[in-house]
Design goal:
Elements (H helix, E strand, L loop, with lengths): L2 H16 L3 E18 L2 H10 L6 E3 L5 H10 L7 E5 L4 E17 L2 E2 L5 E6 L3 E6 L2 E4 L6 E4 L2 E4 L1 H5 L3 E3 L2 E2 L5 E6 L6 E7 L2 E6 L3 E6 L5 E6 L4 E5 L4 E5 L2 E4 L5
Parallel strand pairs: 1-10
Antiparallel strand pairs: 1-4, 2-3, 3-4, 4-7, 5-6, 6-13, 7-8, 8-11, 9-10, 11-12, 14-15, 15-18, 16-17, 16-19, 19-20
Keywords: Signal
Protein name: Flagella basal body P-ring formation protein FlgA
């Protein structure tokens, strides 16, 4: 096999891998403390020198004289300024400012073999923050602090060192292929995407939606495809093939 053909085959496999059908669902927010630095003006540099290098090194903005704090806000484009860090030697001023990003749950839809006897999907990290448009960074929520319901404060460094998902696809090392035997005609496999949505891979064409309450209400629901995303209300569950699907994820 020539080198050119080998390269083309590798490219084809990589392209197929990247073009996975992904389900993306927002499930909360991530707050990152991001550093922002700017070069200070000559007048501001002189003002800092006048108050003394030690006192100007690291303080809250409200501790500075009004003329200095006003210049700082203007220099940093009126961003939310709390603690500041001044490097007089480099004539720069930096702040840490909170930025809010969408937290998403992402799952690969997967695919069936042509005879429907095998189903496989790419098992990948669950939670991702969209730090740039269309560019998602893996979030390990165990390393983050929960601020309130569905909001976490994370370190940017933790995200930047994780896996990245962008338009070109996701790196293969960020997960693994999981294969399931789907030869049973009643085969069904469910993954919860968000508190109320589920990805269903199944061979059956009809399911039963069950509503909890004083009286159980059951209705038949057609399954329009072998891989679908379904929504369940808090008081509902669903019987599909050989499984029961219900909302179990909590914010």
């Amino acid at each position: 096999m020539s080198r050119t053909i080998l390269i083309l085959l590798i490219f084809l496999v990589f392209s197929i891998f990247c073009r996975r059908n992904l389900y993306i669902e927002p499930v909360g927010k991530v707050e990152l403390m991001r550093n922002y630095c700017a070069k200070m003006s000559k007048d501001l540099y002189i003002s800092f020198n006048n108050v003394g290098p030690n006192s100007a090194y690291q303080k809250r903005i409200t501790d500075f004289p009004t003329e200095i704090s006003t210049e700082i806000r203007k220099l940093l484009e009126n961003q939310e300024v709390q603690d500041i860090f001044v490097d007089l030697k480099a004539q720069t001023i930096c702040i840490s400012t909170p930025k809010i990003y969408s937290l998403n749950r992402i799952e690969d839809a997967g695919k069936f073999s042509s005879d429907l006897k095998n189903y496989e999907f790419f098992k990948m990290p669950k939670f991702w923050a969209e730090l740039e448009t269309g560019k998602f960074y893996n979030v390990n929520l165990e390393n983050c602090e929960k601020l309130e319901s569905a909001t976490w404060q994370c370190r940017e460094l933790d995200l930047r060192q994780g896996c990245i998902l962008k338009s070109e696809g996701i790196e293969e090392h960020c997960g693994e292929i999981e294969k399931l035997d789907s030869s049973d005609k009643n085969f069904a496999f469910s993954r919860q995407l968000s508190p109320n949505t589920h990805i269903i891979a199944t061979r059956v064409q009809m399911a039963s939606r069950i509503k909890n309450g004083n009286i159980f209400k059951i209705e038949n629901v057609p399954i329009l495809g072998n891989i679908v995303k379904m929504h369940l209300e808090e008081d509902q569950m669903m019987s599909i093939g050989n499984i029961i699907v219900k909302n179990e994820m909590k914010q």
